């Protein structure tokens, strides 16, 4: 590493090694905001929108404020309304407003829609809620990342990526230091409790997905007597995320997403083989596992250039192929498209593609290319930087990455690098809560885990449930990240629990409605935001 970069990394990282303050005690009472619901615009007639002001620092409840954007889908049977159902789609960095507006009408069964207002809010620092930004303009941020791979593989790429992580950390610290300093999940939980009071509910009804389960655990720790019903789907281990168990590996490694992805990718390949060439194009080229592995290896030295519908080209490197594969595993309904992509990459000739620009990009890559423009700043996903514990060894990431790749080929290395900017950030929210995680609420809660989940591995599900005194675990035998749009059985259990407070028997199981390579059903658009 160049001497100047080494001096800068040591200086910046030093700030990140300061131990966080002790867990916050109860803050002085804050003023409950009044919500003035209004129109969301002519294109969203079914929804209402509003913004409220909440304390930026709950130790100074009458000091500066942070704007929180929220939306609601009103109950269809107001006379039988039970209250408001709060939601969080995950992330960190997922927009609750987008989730409810895009998926609220499809994600819940009619009885839930009848009995609850469905509410989504953008957590502080995210989307429309005073977002954390790391560059002065969106154009400057785009330029900074324009020529960088999704994650590094070679030594030269590792050096460049480390320099970019440092640049990003410095940019976040100089552009949004005030927002970063109060960005923790604990403060989001405090915001949610103020919003609960603002809508007039004595206790909170909540559905949290992925990172939203970490928010749920944090809320349960801070407000154990304010829970009416909790549905926690796709569990993120609080110990793994926060580092409270003493594991000092990088957060991208200790979340075990590489392991979950390898397990799920193996299921993808096995299901493809069972489906055969008629339903899985990759199986038409031979054993899917052999073809996929050889394709990944070839892409390391021979990227493929694909032509997009608008005539532009996209160079598919090894890293991009692995990254797209990882996120495509979230939705088994999209596995045929992933198979098409891998089959195209397996058969395409990089030299012919460069010469003729004639290889058409499969739809999964076209959609992926569009989705990159939806997020206002990478800073909105850097919440772990200000609350989780980190390795303190940013220059050791290449060694960590080699170990992760050995344990979880392809995917371990990819997920390992996501935490490196946090190593340089040097900003802590001292009101964050990092444990202990034994939760005292006596309210029955519903915990859901999918057997093969790439982002929140199933192995965390029972330990997460055991943090609660009265958790009822439901296992969905299937694939993908969370049960959204995948299991009528699970949806029915959720509906019964939310509307009657009758939790399913602990240890219940459900199946998914369709196999990954079954003929596609009618399209239902469900939210897919950023996620861990």
Descriptive overview:
The protein is of the alpha/beta class and 532 residues long. The protein is built from 22 helices and twelve strands. The strands form two sheets. A ten-stranded mixed β-sheet has the order 1-2-3-5-4-6-7-10-11-12, with helices on both faces. Strands 8-9 form a two-stranded antiparallel ribbon. Strand 1 and strand 2 (48-55) form a beta hairpin. Helix 7 (185-198) packs across helix 8. The radius of gyration is 23 Å and the shape is globular. Mean pLDDT is 89; it is low at 1-27, 350-358 and 367-375.
Biggest β-sheet strands, sense, barrel: 10 strands, mixed
Please tally the helical runs, counting DSSP H or I stretches of 4 or more residues: 22
- Ends apart, CA distance between termini: 29 Å
Quaternary class: single chain
Overall, the morphology is: globular
> What is the alpha-carbon Rg in Å?
23 Å
Report strand order across the widest sheet.
1-2-3-5-4-6-7-10-11-12
Helices and strands: which structural class? alpha/beta
Low-confidence stretches: 1-27, 350-358, 367-375
Q: What do the pLDDT scores average to?
A: 89
Helix fraction? 40-55%
| Total strands | 12
**Beta-sheet strand percentage?**
5-15%
């Amino acid at each position: 590493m160049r001497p100047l970069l080494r001096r800068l990394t040591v200086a910046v990282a030093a700030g990140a090694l300061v131990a966080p303050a002790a867990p916050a005690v109860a803050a002085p009472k804050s003023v409950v905001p009044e919500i003035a619901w209004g129109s969301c615009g002519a294109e969203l007639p079914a929804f209402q929108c509003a913004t409220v002001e909440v304390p930026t620092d709950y130790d100074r409840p009458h000091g500066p404020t942070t704007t929180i954007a929220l939306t609601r889908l009103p109950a269809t049977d107001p006379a039988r309304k039970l209250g408001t159902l709060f939601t969080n789609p995950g992330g960190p960095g997922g927009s609750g407003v987008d989730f409810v507006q895009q998926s609220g009408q499809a994600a819940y069964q009619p009885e839930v829609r009848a009995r609850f207002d469905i509410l989504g809010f953008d957590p502080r620092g995210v989307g429309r809620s005073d977002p954390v930004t790391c560059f002065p303009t969106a154009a400057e941020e785009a330029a900074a990342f324009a020529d960088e791979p999704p994650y590094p593989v070679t030594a030269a790429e590792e050096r460049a990526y480390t320099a970019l992580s440092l640049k990003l950390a410095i940019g976040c610290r100089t552009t949004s230091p005030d927002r970063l300093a109060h960005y923790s999940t604990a403060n989001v939980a405090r915001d949610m409790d103020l919003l609960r009071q603002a809508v007039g509910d004595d206790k909170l009804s909540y559905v949290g997905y992925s990172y939203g389960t970490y928010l749920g655990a944090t809320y349960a720790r801070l407000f154990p007597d304010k829970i009416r019903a909790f549905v926690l789907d796709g569990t993120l281990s609080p110990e793994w995320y926060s580092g409270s168990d003493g594991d000092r590996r990088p957060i991208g490694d200790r979340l075990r997403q590489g392991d979950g992805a390898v397990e799920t990718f193996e299921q993808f390949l096995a299901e493809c083989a069972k489906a055969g060439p008629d339903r899985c194009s990759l199986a038409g080229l031979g054993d899917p596992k052999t073809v996929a592995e050889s394709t990944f290896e070839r892409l390391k030295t021979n990227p493929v250039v694909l032509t997009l519908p608008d005539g532009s080209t996209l160079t598919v490197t090894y890293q991009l192929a692995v990254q797209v594969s990882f996120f495509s595993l979230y939705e088994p309904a999209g596995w045929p498209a992933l198979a098409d992509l891998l089959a195209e990459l397996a058969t395409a000739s990089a030299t012919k593609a460069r010469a003729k620009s004639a290889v058409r990009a499969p739809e999964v890559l076209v959609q992926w290319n569009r989705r990159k423009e939806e997020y206002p700043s990478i800073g909105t996903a850097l919440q772990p930087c200000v609350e989780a514990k980190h390795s303190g060894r940013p220059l050791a990431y290449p060694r960590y990455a080699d170990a992760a790749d050995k344990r979880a080929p392809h995917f371990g290395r990819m997920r390992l690098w996501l935490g490196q900017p946090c190593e340089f950030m040097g900003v802590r929210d001292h009101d964050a809560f990092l444990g202990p995680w034994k939760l005292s609420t006596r309210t029955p809660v519903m915990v859901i885990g999918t057997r093969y989940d790439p982002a929140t591995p199933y192995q965390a599900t029972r330990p997460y449930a055991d943090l609660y005194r009265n958790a009822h675990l439901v296992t969905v035998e299937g694939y993908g990240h969370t049960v959204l749009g995948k299991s009528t059985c699970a949806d029915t259990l959720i509906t019964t629990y939310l509307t009657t407070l009758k939790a399913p028997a602990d240890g219940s199981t459900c199946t998914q409605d369709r196999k990954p390579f079954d003929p596609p059903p009618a399209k239902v658009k469900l939210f897919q935001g950023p996620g861990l």
